[in-house]
Design a protein that fits this description.
The complex is a heterodimer of chains A (163) and B (254).
Chain A lengths: L3 E8 L2 E8 L4 H8 L18 E4 L2 E4 L12 E3 L13 H8 L9 H14 L5 H7 L11 H16 L4
Parallel strand pairs in A: 1-5
Antiparallel strand pairs in A: 1-2, 3-4, 3-5
Chain B lengths: L1 H4 L20 E3 L3 E5 L4 H5 L2 H6 L1 H7 L5 H4 L4 H7 L5 H8 L3 E6 L2 E6 L4 E3 L2 E2 L6 E8 L6 E7 L9 E10 L2 E10 L6 E2 L1 H6 L7 H4 L19 H28 L1
Antiparallel strand pairs in B: 1-2, 2-7, 3-4, 3-7, 5-6, 8-9, 9-10, 10-11
Helix pairs in contact in B: 4-7
The chains are: A alpha+beta (163), B alpha+beta (254).
Chain lengths: 163, 254
């Protein structure tokens, strides 16, 4: 039998009280237990970034956290970026407008990462934006659209976006 | 966590130190910067105290993984894990860091040069815990530079060099140089440090960098043969020393 522990965690604004095996990663909790499969597993050792989510507002690798470590925390996944009425987060809109995704596998990790990055860096240079997305591996796009989207999202957030 | 995910290790019991507030924090005196083992790398990176007391530490952190990993990764975790290509390992070496370790049986302090036993194995008994790390401070006008080559920004280094210098007028009064990625963990190039003391940093002097690197070996691996790492060590050590000297001069002029 696996040891289990009871935790309280808020995910995308919704509080959950649940019991999880202590061996579960946060990624597994989100994907398997909560069926939030937007968070992806690419490498499971922290390099590819596809699993990136926000924990208490900070972008982290959910494959490198244990589920029990988010007891008492607020988690935001890609599913939690858009408004309740479906209005996309400015970062999501900018990705769409700049063809910053193709297969979409890396995209959830990039969206959460860029959302966090722009909170701390609202007016990045192209070089800073390029470095910021370098922690997420994208095989499809060649990153140009991703960097353009990051800069456009930054501008929209500065000039009128509410996030 | 990566080791567990890759099934390279497994434990009966795993203790999360995240809730132990006493293990976090950054403090400084005029002589020493002290950082708690559980301090997140990103908190060190953003710390004005750390930037002021040990700027090479903050510079090196920009090469450590990515901001997402630095949001969780800790200073103590990196040192205790002791990857020979880890930037923080090379910085602890070049700064002659001291590790404070404790167990139920008592506490002890380990000089960083005495800490590595082999790759991924430091002088920590199974029941011991790394609590904090002291980084002795250099003078306010010291020069520093961290140079790294990695296949992608944020990767562990193939080779990296960390250089610290102090100038007395034109002459080098103090030098420290460490290498990451060589067989010797946190290798200090003491031959160069001694030979260069009192010298003026001219192009002729910089041409002698590789003379002092002959004794250091490197293992061949998928990134290339030993000669590749040794060549990189020479290139990066020279770049780091040049930039550190320019940095020191800029503080003298300021």
């Amino acid at each position: 039998m696996h040891d289990e522990r009871s935790i309280n965690v808020t995910v995308n604004g919704e509080p959950h009280e649940l019991t999880t095996p202590v061996r579960s990663t946060l990624a597994d909790l989100l994907r398997q237990r909560l069926r939030l499969t937007g968070t992806h597993l690419g490498c499971e050792h922290g390099v590819c970034g596809a699993c990136t989510v926000l924990v208490d507002g900070d972008a982290v690798r959910s494959c490198l956290m244990l589920a029990v470590q988010v007891d008492g925390a607020e988690v935001t996944t890609v599913e939690g970026l858009a408004d309740d009425d479906g209005t996309m987060h400015p970062v999501q809109q900018a990705f769409m407008d700049n063809h910053a995704l193709q297969c979409g596998f890396c995209t959830p990790g990039l969206l959460t990462s860029v959302a966090d990055f722009l909170e701390d860096n609202p007016d990045p240079t192209r070089e800073e934006a390029t470095e910021a997305v370098s922690g997420n591996i994208c095989r499809c796009t060649g990153y140009a659209g991703i960097v353009d989207a990051t800069l456009q999202a930054a501008e929209r957030l500065r000039t009128g976006g509410s996030r | 966590m990566p080791l567990m995910n890759l099934r390279m290790t497994a434990f009966e019991d795993l203790i999360d130190l995240g809730g132990v507030e006493e293990l976090r924090g950054i403090t400084s005196t005029p002589d020493v910067l002290t950082i708690g083992a559980m301090t997140r790398q990103r908190d060190v990176e953003r710390s004005d105290q750390a930037r002021d007391a040990a700027p090479i530490l903050v510079e090196a952190l920009s090469h450590v993984g990515h901001f997402q990993t630095r949001n969780r990764g800790t200073l103590g975790g990196s040192l205790a894990h002791l990857d020979p290509t880890a930037e923080l390992v090379g910085v602890a070496s070049v700064l002659d860091a001291e590790l404070h370790v404790t167990s139920a049986n008592g506490s002890r302090t380990i000089a960083f040069r005495d800490f590595p036993q082999m790759s991924f194995v430091g002088d920590l008994e199974p029941e011991e815990l790394l609590v904090s790390v002291d980084f002795p401070r250099w003078s306010a006008s010291h020069g520093r530079a961290f140079e790294e080559y990695a296949p992608r920004h944020g990767d562990f280094a193939i080779v990296a060099a960390a250089a610290l210098v102090e100038l007395d007028g034109d002459r080098l009064s103090r030098i420290a140089l460490s290498l990451m990625g060589m067989t010797e963990i946190g290798a200090r190039v003491t031959g160069l440090e001694q030979a260069w003391a009192g010298e003026v940093p001219t192009d002729e002097l910089f041409n002698t960098v590789t003379d002092h690197l002959q004794e250091f070996t490197a293992s061949p691996d998928i990134h290339g043969p030993s000669e590749y790492r040794k060549h990189l060590a020479g290139v990066l050590a020279e770049r780091a020393l040049r930039r550190a000297c320019n940095d020191a001069r800029s503080h003298a002029d300021a």
